[in-house]
Amino acid sequence: MAVTALAARARHAAVVLAALVLAGCGYGSLRDADPTPVAASGPKLSVDEVRIGHLPNVTHATPLVGVRDGFFAKELGGTGVADVVFNAGPSLIEALNANAVDIGWIGPSPIVNGYARAGGVNLRVISGAASGGVRLVVRPEIASAQDLRGRRIASPQLGNTQDVALLTWLAEQGLRVDARSGRGDVSVVRTDNAEMPSAYRTGAIDGAWAPEPTAAKLVAEGGKVLLEESDLWPDGEFATTNVVVSQRFLAEHRDVVAAVLRGSVAANAWINANPGPAKESVNGALRRLTGKALPAEVIDRAWESVEFTDDPLASTLETQAGHAAHVGLIEPPDLRGLYDLSLLNDVLRAAGRPAVTDSGLGAK
């Protein structure tokens, strides 16, 4: 699809989403149940407001905590934050392409797909956020990959990170699936994360390759973990959530991007040092955004499989791009120039921490 067509679709979708989020800032009776995000205070940077996009997932704890607990606001001074929530990564990429969002937390596959489709002129990965936190949860009687024949297994969206991982793993198990239609030995059913538990409950799906907390919700519905995706990766690490920015915004507002990265690094440090309060903060943010907090056993189960890291794990994103090409969703992409980790490494060095690598895929 042409970039202009993507932009047109994204502009409409993102404006509607932003309107829904901003119109619901009070969230009715929830306003008293959970504090609103910390407001801007102090001198403004080069924009009045930065629009941050993310998903309502535990794997996006960094922006959830960053907004709710003021880590971004502290660094941004009088520049405000618009918190725009999406259900899946491809929609967020479309919003970035349409200039409806400035900075986003997102999974690798939509980043790769969006960057490749635009010929490398739209995005930069500027940081990591999370590794892990993805599981294949299935019905208890399913004991192996071969037991999935004839079953319906969900992924969040065509071409999203979990969709690519599921298609890749099924192919490695000798199970044939047409990547586009999802038809084959196993039916891959693209299902919104929020709808997966009810779909499992009613029998519409037999499991899902899903991020947290959706995977933990499926376990709470009686499912079992057949596979931890981290078990498929060397050292158990792979990019689940990265931070991306539009190239235009990065070029014109580096002061704002640097401030957001300082907030992101600080939020991750706090999350890792304070897992109990961090879980409470994430659950409070999810209650504001979705209308319902997670039960303790669900968020505890979800939390145990996620690692919060500023390292974008660039080499694993490159591997995931190869997976997407191998299953036929994209042509082999040229990812040179995708990363600009200069501002992140400035922040890390200032904190006395080592720099992270772009694995040779950095912008010149």
Automatic annotation (TrEMBL):
Keyword set, alphabetical order: Cell inner membrane, Cell membrane, Membrane, Signal, Transport
UniProt key word Nucleotidyltransferase: no
Primary location group: membrane
Claim: Cell membrane is one of the keywords in the record: yes
Pfam families from the UniProt entry: NMT1_2 (PF13379)
Subcellular location: Cell inner membrane; Periplasm
Homology family: Belongs to the bacterial solute-binding protein SsuA/TauA family.
Protein's name according to its UniProt entry: NitT/TauT family transport system substrate-binding protein
UniProt organism field: Saccharothrix longispora
Lineage: Bacteria, Bacillati, Actinomycetota, Actinomycetes, Pseudonocardiales
